[in-house]
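As agreed, record minuted below.
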Amino acid sequence: MGLFDFIKNEFIEVIDWVDDSNNTVLYKFPDKGNKIMNKAQLTVRESQVVVLMNEGEFGDEYKPGRYELSTQNMPITTTLKSWKYLFDSPFKVDVFFVNTKQFTNLKWGTSNPIIMRDPEFKQVRVRSFGTYTIRVKDAKKFITEFAGTNPYVPIDAISEQCRNTIISKMAEGLAEAGVSVLDLAANFTEIGNKLKPIFQTDFDAWGIELGQFYIENVSLPEEVERMFDKATQVNMMSDKLNQFNQMQAGIALENMSENAGAANMAGMGAGVLLTNMMQTQTQPQQPQQQQNAGSAAGGNDQQKMIDLLKQLGELKAAGVLTEEEFNQKKAEILGKL
């Protein structure tokens, strides 16, 4: 190798970058102190932006495409270097590749509970987590406000800062939503859309754009969840009991129509049976048209009351009514006598 070849190898003729890691946001081209040849070939791939920097000042910016670095394609850098004429000499600038693709499935979550005002429960401590997406929308601002002089910035470094911003603003957003914790799940999309502009205000300062923001879950303290679980169980048992009573009433009425015996009434649910009995047996009689029929109607009512007492005694003996329920209904009937 001759002296000329050695010198030529010290100059950079091709500049490009392929992200093998798939998680790099900023990458400074490693020039190793070498200068760039005049008319060197610069390749900017899709989802990339290249920014030149000369002695701490921003030079030209290049979007996806292939470029020949010369005075015609470097107007800002030419001004910075005070190149008044066409030049044929190597030059020195810093070359930064910025990845502008959408970084997806980034996680966020509250490490400590957020105290939110609830219209039903006053104050509730909640935890929340979800995912979001971001991308760099302003390469120069991103370098200035976030990357600084770092030659390499991974997505983890950015997502950590973004996550802190989201968590700090989350309490404010949930408070402004004014939704009860019981209705949060049904309003995740609406709440996320309201929170997104709040987060974007901080992201703008770094040249970053928040793409999508998702709330996947909001969890309550364990003691509150246990209370809700018990309430749910009670509601379920109440519904099941009502269904059972209705079913038993239907069966008993069917049996009564086939066999007009008082013993068949024991198949009816206690609550439904007593209600129907009291409504039918104790209902006041219609006014009699003839004055002399009043005493006979009174006698019939008393006989019906006595029959009802007998039926209640049979239900108690069959175990359908408790002692307390029997005494309560007996006292009501005796009071009408």
About this structure: The longest strand covers residues 122-136.
